Fold Starvation-inducible DNA-binding protein.
Amino acid sequence: MSLSPLPIDLPYAKDSAMNDLPLPLPPADRKTAGQALQDSLVDLLDLSSNAKQAHWNLRGPGFRSLHLHLDEIVETTRAFADDVAERASALGVSPDGRPVTVAARGPRPFPPGPITVAEALEVFATLYGALIPRMRGRISDTGTADPVTQDLLISVTAALEKQYWMLRAEDPAYDGA
Ligand SMILES: [Fe+2]
């Protein structure tokens, strides 16, 4: 059975008076906010996939605790990916969460195969340590352009920083600093 082509040229969308209504932001601010949201979307999708990869491949002492913790991270980051994508749509910016886009722009590859708890903690600490400054940069970028987007990014970053702390705290050598 073949699928019929997608109706990408919808006449009601073209003719609808809805299309004459203004978008929430002027073009320059929409571009700034849209870029911050798109970049955040890619980072969050990348992080959620890597957390699942580790969830499945984890080995060794401390398995159960981190295995469950990683699924909490997956759930949170997927929900935030949805939030930032839908914020982009609300601004009239098309979010791109395709695997090919994430693969092309993902910050770093995750190691394949089995991974020990200690290795996973180190990998995620490195991922979060790079991701959080990027998120904070996006918070700075969006403050003037769109405080509503900035507010969302602040919430996302607060959750990421909490996850970062919890992952680091699972390392026996963690001293809280
Ligand atoms: Fe599972």
Helices lie at 11-15, 27-57, 63-90, 99-105, 117-145, 147-169. The chain has one domain: 27-169. The mean pLDDT is 90.
